[in-house]
């Protein structure tokens, strides 16, 4: 059950509780109101308890990277800047909530500033095919101009997701922060990953993420710099959560704030 659905159920429960109190306090209330409001409150409470206590069929390994994380149509992902020596990279950790494979395109654009300009810190589009329930990471080299290193930068985030063979069963019930839709582009034909820094891509109602850009790193990326996609866990592997615990704690420190599409801090 999504967070919006839980909010609706919680609202029904509150209305049912207040309605129950008023209906039994008022002498002219009907029998239907006296029975209906308590039934709605108890039923909503039961649904909330069920949604919060049901057991996932797959571990939520993204929780070992950061909370909250983003989601589009069952494809969840977290955006983490990192460094190796003097080389910066942008890591996108991802996990599929459904049992069948999906194809996703994740897009990051630097947010517009006060005068509607954007800092030249790179726009990203990454494509990935994710197995059902699988958890993985894409690591992209990143050249950051010296004047912006160490500063806080906002990015607009959106994604396009599709399931070629339908979604199948839901394996994880915890959803992420909803992101808007990115305009679908032609798939590159590379089955695992294809990514690039380049021009702006049109986004519809993007979410917002604020990152602290790495410091003391190279400003440019070599043409032969590798772009790596790794599947760290898939259904059938040991579900002990160790995949998330192997991440360096410093990676999470660079993810400052994740905002919803309306700009409110979550």
DSSP strand content: 25-35%
What is the straight-line distance between the termini? 18 Å
The overall pLDDT, averaged over residues, is: 79
Biggest beta-sheet profile: 8 strands, mixed
Overall tally of domains: 2
What order do the helices and strands follow?
HHEEEEEEEEEEEEEHHE
Helix and strand composition category? alpha+beta
Share in helix: 10-25%
DSSP summary: helix tally: 4
Extended strand count: 14
Q: Report the uncertain regions.
A: 189-200, 240-266
- Radius of gyration, CA atoms, in whole angstroms: 22 Å
**Global shape:** elongated
Keywords:
six-stranded mixed sheet, 21% helix, disordered C terminus, 4 helices, elongated, alpha+beta, 33% strand, eight-stranded mixed sheet, 2 domains, 266 residues
Q: How would you sum up this structure in a few lines?
A:
With 266 residues, this protein is of the alpha+beta class.
Verbal overview:
The chain has helices at residues 3-25, 31-53, 242-245, 249-253; strands at 70-72, 75-84, 87-96, 102-110, 124-130, 135-142, 152-162, 177-178, 180-182, 193-197, 203-204, 207-212, 228-233, 255-259. The chain is an alpha+beta fold and 266 residues long. A hairpin with a 2-residue loop joins strand 1 and strand 2 (75-84). Mean pLDDT is 79; it is low at 189-200 and 240-266.
Structural topology:
Layout: H1 3-25, H2 31-53, E1 70-72, E2 75-84, E3 87-96, E4 102-110, E5 124-130, E6 135-142, E7 152-162, E8 177-178, E9 180-182, E10 193-197, E11 203-204, E12 207-212, E13 228-233, H3 242-245, H4 249-253, E14 255-259
Parallel strand pairs: 1-8, 7-9
Antiparallel strand pairs: 1-2, 2-3, 3-6, 4-5, 4-7, 5-10, 6-13, 7-12, 9-11, 12-14
Helix pairs in contact: 1-2
């Amino acid at each position: 059950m999504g967070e919006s659905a839980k909010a609706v159920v919680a609202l029904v429960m509150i209305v049912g509780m207040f309605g129950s109190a008023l209906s039994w306090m008022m002498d002219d209330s009907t029998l239907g109101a006296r029975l209906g409001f308590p039934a709605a409150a108890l039923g909503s409470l039961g649904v909330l308890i069920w949604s919060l206590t049901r057991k996932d069929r797959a571990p939520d390994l993204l929780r070992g990277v950061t909370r909250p994380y983003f989601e589009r149509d069952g494809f969840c992902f977290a955006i983490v800047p990192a460094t190796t020596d003097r080389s910066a990279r942008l890591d996108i950790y991802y996990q599929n909530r459904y049992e069948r494979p999906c194809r996703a395109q994740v897009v990051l654009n630097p947010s517009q500033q006060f005068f509607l300009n954007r800092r030249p810190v790179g726009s990203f589009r990454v494509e990935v095919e994710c197995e059902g329930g699988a958890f993985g990471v894409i690591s992209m080299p990143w050249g950051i101009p010296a004047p912006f290193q160490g500063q806080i930068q906002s990015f607009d985030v959106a994604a396009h997701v599709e399931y070629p063979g339908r979604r199948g069963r839901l394996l994880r019930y915890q959803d992420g922060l909803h992101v808007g839709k990115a305009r679908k582009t032609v798939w590159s034909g590379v089955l695992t990953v294809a990514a690039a820094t380049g021009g702006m891509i049109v986004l519809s109602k993007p979410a917002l993420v604020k990152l602290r850009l790495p410091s003391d790193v190279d400003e440019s990326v070599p043409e032969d710099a590798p772009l790596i996609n790794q599947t760290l866990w898939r259904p059938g592997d040991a579900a002990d959560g160790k995949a998330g615990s192997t991440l360096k704690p410093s990676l999470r420190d660079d993810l400052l704030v994740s905002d919803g599409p309306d700009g409110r801090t979550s």
